[in-house]
Design brief:
Blueprint lengths: L1 E2 L2 E2 L2 E8 L4 H13 L7 E5 L2 E7 L5 E7 L4 E7 L2 H8 L4 E4 L14 H10 L5 H5 L6 E4 L8 E8 L4 E8 L2 E8 L3 E3 L3
């Protein structure tokens, strides 16, 4: 993440858009970045879409994309005056979360708030593993065990799985689950 002579100060930001226009806005931003000297300061630009199986009118299973956060796009970037101007003046961008308006740059979103979104979309990186340790309490955020809480007893970075000690039907049980499907429980 080097930018010629300095290290990037990359954070996560959330831009608001007109609902249903998230991909159009994403493409507009990408086009504007192509002509910008600061294009390399935007590392990721994400529309939070997942694919789901649904039944159509003919009772056939089809795969459809669903936006988890309509009206928002997520940007991992270094905020500068130039980038602030470029993004907020892109057609379809209606603002930034954490900006009071009147030219005030937005506050970045805490990584802990972005992490569950990234995991749900399948983006798991080394930085995420650093936040979890044996004995941490976690909650399963998707799949058949959604909402179940337990304590981490093993983390396998190679396979991307964790073993969690949980209680099912009054009995202690160990569940192996994909790392992307957990979030920390904050007491």
């Amino acid at each position: 993440m080097e930018n010629k002579d300095k290290t990037l100060q990359v954070k996560w930001y959330v831009a608001s858009t007109q609902s249903g226009q998230e991909n159009t806005v994403r493409n507009n931003i990408l086009k504007r970045l192509e002509s910008s000297e600061k294009a390399e300061t935007v590392l990721r630009l994400i529309v939070a879409e997942i694919e789901e199986e649904v039944l159509n009118a003919k009772n056939e299973t089809v795969i459809k994309k669903r936006n988890l956060y309509p009206g928002y796009i997520f940007l991992e970037m270094e905020m500068s005056d130039e980038m602030w101007f470029l993004i907020r003046n892109t057609p379809g961008v209606t603002g930034f979360i954490g900006s009071s308006g009147r030219g005030a740059k937005p506050f970045p979103v805490d990584y802990e708030d972005i992490e569950p979104i990234l995991k749900r979309l399948g983006y798991v990186d080394k930085k995420m593993y650093e936040r979890y340790k044996i004995n941490d309490y976690v909650r399963i955020i998707d799949g058949p065990f959604v909402g179940t809480e337990g304590q981490i007893i093993e983390i396998d970075k190679e396979t991307g799985t964790v073993k969690i000690e949980t209680t099912f039907f009054g009995r202690v049980s160990v569940t192996e689950i994909n790392f992307a499907l957990i979030e920390k429980v904050v007491f």
